[in-house]
Amino acid sequence: MLAIFNNSVASGPEELRIPGDRSPNYPKKDSSDLLSSFFNGFPQAISLKVGGMGDMAYTHEKQDLLRPR
Predict the structure, then answer these.
(1) How far apart are CA 63 and CA 67, in angstroms?
(2) Which residues pair with 57 in a beta bridge?
(3) By Cβ atoms counted within 10 A, which residue in 11, 44, 50, 51 is the most buried?
(4) Where is the region Disordered (predicted)?
């Protein structure tokens, strides 16, 4: 599952930020780039846009259907 929220809804924890993430060698990805990366790894995922507040994506791919979480 991937959830991307606008900063007005929730701020990400500092621990999730990569040291040097402001470096020009590692440009910050926007939400559409993050969703594209997720769909490249999980092509059968579904997504939901929550107005201007964020995006969510989910997949059952690579999960044991007989033993759901």
Answers:
(1) 8
(2) 2, 47
(3) 50
(4) 1-30
Q: Which two tokens stand for residue 14?
A: 């500092």
**Where do runs of H (alpha helix) occur along the chain?**
31-41
Token digits of residue 42: 């999980």
What are the boundaries of each domain within the chain? 2-58
- The 10s digit of each residue's pLDDT in 2-43 is 888 888 888 777 776 655 555 566 667 788 888 999 999 999
Read off the tokens for 27: 């440009």
**Which of 32, 21, 27 has its CA nearest to residue 54?**
32
The SS3 assignment for 14 reads: helix
CB-count exposure of residue 45 (10 Å: 0-12, 13-18, 19+):
middle
